[in-house]
Amino acid sequence: MSISSVKKSPDIQSIDIDGKNFATQRDDQITRFVKTSLGYYQTQFAKIGGDSNFVWTWNLWAAVLGPIWFSARGMWNWALSFLIIETFAIVQIVRGLFGDLATEAWERIAKIEGTLELRRQQLASAIENNTDKIDVYRRTVESLEDAIGGIRLEAEQLEGSGLWIACSGIFALLVVKTVQAVVANTLLEKRFSDWLSDSSIVSGMTLSHIILSTGFVLIILFATVTHYSFPGLYPWLIEFPTEHGIRLTSIAWVERFFAFAVENGDAFFDSITYGIRLMLDGLELVFVQTPWMVIASFIILLTWLSAGLRAAIYSGAFLSYMGLLGFWEKAMTTLALLGTAACLSIIIGIPLGMYCARRERFYAFIRPIMDFMQTMPAFVFMIPVIAFFGTGKPAAVVTTMIFGGTPVVRLTVLGLRGVPENVREAAISFGASKWYLLTRVDLPLASPSIRAGINQTIMLSLAMVVVASLIGAKGLGEDVLEALQYANVGQGILAGFAILFCAMILDRIVQGERK
Questions:
Q1: pLDDT of 514 above 60
Q2: Where in the sequence is the domain holding 108, given as residue range(s)?
Q3: Which long-range contacts (CB under 8 A, 24 or more apart) does 276-279 make?
Q4: Do 149 and 194 have their domain in common?
Q5: With contact defined as beta carbons under 8 Å apart, do 205 and 36 qualify?
Q6: N-to-C CA span, the chain
Q7: Coil, strand or helix: which one is 54?
Q8: CA distances from 321 to 301, 304, 308 (A)
Q9: pTM score over 0.85
Q10: What pLDDT, on a 0 to 100 scale, did the predictor assign at position 359?
């Protein structure tokens, strides 16, 4: 009996059928994904998917269309990268073939020639009057003539290098086109694999993507090539068409808003100022009025209990540095100001973070506000603070809270959301109440993150010491600011070290040595 006459077993037949079904299903998926050139992409994807190494393929349309093809396929990151390189290459080609490479050199020559003509007239007048400045004017004229000759030689060299610049652009364009053709199918197959597990990924070449990518690429190419190849041809490519009336109107609106807020919120802002002043005066009474020996002993003991004996010794050395150099009172004033801002930030921030941790919508609402507080330069938000609270220590406390109050909120949310759900479910299954769950499960497990948030709030608040001194806050920042104004290097460095030592002491007390 011949081998060809042997019938396949049912198991072998089912494997063949399953294989055909899988291949058919994959072809259908590729068809739904690419939507163009179906047979070509089915073959290319099968070749790429069947080899673990990089497979060399060639996609002609990716090479021809370049960034337009990649962006129309939804691969915008690759499209932008290739667009930058192609734009550079095209700019080099156009500059080399059609651009005036020596424009700037000829403009410099024209300016120098105007000065040279003036100096020649002065030289002629000096010769006519036989003054003692003849040699000065003659040397000036000769130096200007030499400068013009050197610039003219440079301009001629630039004009002769146009062909080489164009050739380098052509070479760069050919290289990037080759890379696009070689990697296009591999990148598209990877995107296809991602699409199989995530249906939200855009597939095919939709009309909106084609129009958007084509328009974007053409605008970028036109603006860049025109600007670099023919500088000055379209001035509006360099200067934004600004309407000064809009700026003046916006300034007037902002000023009217702040005037209205200050006029109608006087009682509200006075109450905040009174509360800050009350807490600040209490801390200044403790830190400044209390004998230095008591405060130093208390800080050293607290550091020892929190971070150990070595940290306590360092704290004692830092405190001795401040006392011996005459920074003690100002350092205590700084700690009172910092303590007020940090305590208020922590008192407000931790409960707010606890509330936001289980309420995603509310956290999504306040997150942009916190981003604004952290990214806005301190000198900018000092303007409305001064408008509402005036100058002085309360305004400095509010400024410090705005700048340094967000980390404790963010890290409290991060810590509470990082509590394992199985631990919380176990506590709930044993009958834990919400209060017990919060105080005995969530907060203890989130305490490292919360302590890190407290530490960051204190450090950022301390970073505002010098800035706060601009609006009337006393302390070590005043010495640094005075050193900046009068270029007193020694005073500024010594006061800066005092601020650094305050930060190190507070860091050790808050963080401790417990991991």
A1: no
A2: 103-160
A3: 276/340, 276/344, 276/393, 276/394, 276/397, 276/398, 277/393, 277/394, 279/340, 279/343, 279/344
A4: no
A5: yes
A6: 79
A7: coil
A8: 18, 19, 20
A9: no
A10: 87
